[in-house]
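TICKET: design request
STATUS: open
ATTACHED STRUCTURE:
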């Protein structure tokens, strides 16, 4: 095996029971979305490999991890932060290579936040307290009720490709802080950082089997093997709704708990009394950041009619000011989509918008890229107007750098348009009227509603979606509810 500083081999291997190993399945290529080159040849986990990982995780629950004092366990979890930080350049290089996102974005968001998730939940668990209640009894002696919590067990963690390290550690952090063990199945598109994290786990003293990584795909592969495994006690997933439905069906056998953060078709409501500069900047980020590959991103924008034309013109100018280029270029502000396959999906929606009668305000195609970059998964940031609400482009999640802008005439109309979706993940409201903000926000059928902001959240608060955007809430003590089993003990006095 190559030295730890050379990540090209490590990131292609499975990590089971504290050791890197090839898989019993086939191999597949991890392709760069920037230029189509091969990043690594990844070893797919077989059904036996998945079982080995689950059994290693199960054994670790009965071993030193399960018997470790809380303070010692949390010290190790906090140590993971230092371990990632010490290897920041390695993790950054791997994340950028897998995703094609600009270094400027990954260096201040993906890796630092991914590391910080361990510290956040170590601190939350360190300060967590349980409850006790005295109650009267008919004989006058009373009784004492108090709660206890224990780890839920082996947690199956299935991760998306848009924010690979950040969203994976958002689940692994609280799982480990609560004393669970995990089997992680990263996206086949972005296998690297999850595998590399195994080195950090070993270096900081995480016992073998506590953290495991298996590579592969969904149906008939590692994802299905993991979600169907009877010794997996709970499943947590971030990704598209269709996959979440499949996981939920598998979890129903054995009545295992699930936490699902799924797709979204998020609206923004822009009122005429908004601060236009703030609304343009926030909407621009929410529509185009990470090339639109953010579950919380905005794809539907509703603008009060008096400012509609100005808003469209200024957002067009902002979109056309984005610099498309290679990730390492400091001037790059818009990277690639995750893959050529996803590029074709996004372009199919671009074509459908035109077919449905959209006015293409800007974009709508593929930019001209020089040399090898022409082989990458590039698309133009795109804005439409003029589509009916019945259009597929309005109804379905695209997950690309695009949005449709439509006018509205009243507050009630805006609320109705925003809520007319099978999804309910997030929304943004732009208004300087505080009363209106407090009046409209609670009426949004979403898990999180931003007012005059986007992608801002205290991590102690609950996060999740409603309707087809998910089940459950994670964040702060709400994560502890999923990653622990609570019991009540009633003592007659």
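STATUS: resolved
RESOLUTION: sequence designed for all positions
ATTACHED SEQUENCE:
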């Amino acid at each position: 095996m190559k030295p730890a500083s050379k990540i090209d081999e490590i990131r292609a291997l499975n990590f089971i029971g504290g050791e890197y190993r090839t898989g019993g399945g086939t191999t597949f290529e991890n392709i760069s979305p920037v230029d189509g080159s091969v990043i690594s040849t990844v070893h797919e986990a077989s059904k036996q490999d998945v079982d080995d990982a689950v059994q290693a995780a199960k054994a670790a629950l009965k071993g030193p991890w399960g018997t470790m004092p809380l303070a010692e366990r949390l010290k190790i979890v906090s140590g993971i932060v230092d371990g990632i930080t010490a290897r920041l350049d390695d993790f950054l290089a791997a994340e950028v290579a897998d995703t094609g996102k600009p270094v400027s974005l990954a260096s201040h968001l993906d890796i630092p936040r991914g590391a910080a998730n361990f510290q956040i939940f170590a601190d939350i668990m360190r300060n967590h307290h349980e409850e006790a209640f005295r109650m009267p009894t008919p004989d006058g002696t009373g009784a004492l009720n108090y709660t206890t919590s224990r780890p839920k067990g082996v947690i199956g963690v299935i991760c998306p490709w848009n924010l690979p390290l950040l969203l994976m550690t958002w689940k692994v952090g609280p799982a480990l802080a609560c004393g669970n063990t995990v089997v992680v199945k990263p996206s086949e598109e972005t296998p690297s950082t999850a595998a590399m994290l195994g080195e950090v786990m070993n270096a900081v003293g995480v016992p073998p089997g506590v953290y495991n990584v298996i590579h592969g795909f969904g149906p008939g592969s590692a994802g299905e093997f993991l979600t169907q495994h009877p010794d997996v006690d709970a499943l947590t997933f971030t990704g598209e709704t269709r996959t979440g439905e499949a996981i939920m069906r598998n979890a129903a056998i054995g009545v295992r708990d699930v936490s699902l953060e799924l797709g979204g078709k998020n609206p923004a409501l822009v009122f005429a009394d908004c601060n236009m500069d703030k609304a343009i900047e926030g909407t621009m980020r929410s529509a185009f950041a990470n090339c639109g590959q953010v579950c919380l991103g905005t794809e539907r924008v509703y603008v009060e009619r008096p400012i509609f034309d100005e808003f469209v013109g200024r957002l067009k100018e902002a979109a056309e000011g984005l610099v498309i280029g290679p990730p390492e270029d400091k001037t790059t502000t818009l990277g690639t989509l995750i893959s050529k396959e996803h590029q074709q999906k996004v372009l199919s929606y671009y074509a459908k918008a035109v077919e449905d009668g959209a006015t293409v305000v800007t974009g709508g195609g593929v930019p001209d890229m020089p040399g090898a970059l022409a082989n990458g998964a590039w698309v133009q940031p795109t804005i439409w107007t003029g589509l009916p609400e019945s259009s597929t482009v309005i109804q379905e999640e695209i997950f690309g750098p695009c949005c449709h802008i439509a006018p509205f005439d009243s507050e009630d109309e805006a609320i109705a348009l925003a809520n007319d979706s099978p999804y309910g993940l997030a929304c943004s409201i732009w208004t300087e009227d505080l009363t209106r903000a407090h009046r409209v926000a609670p009426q949004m059928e979403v898990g999180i509603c931003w007012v005059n902001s986007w992608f801002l959240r205290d991590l102690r608060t609950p996060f999740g979606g409603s309707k087809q955007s998910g089940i459950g809430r994670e964040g702060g003590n709400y994560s502890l509810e999923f990653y622990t089993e609570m019991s009540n003990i009633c003592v007659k006095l």
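CLOSING REMARK: Residues 103-126 form the longest helix (24 residues). The CA atoms of residues 217 and 223 lie 6 Å apart.
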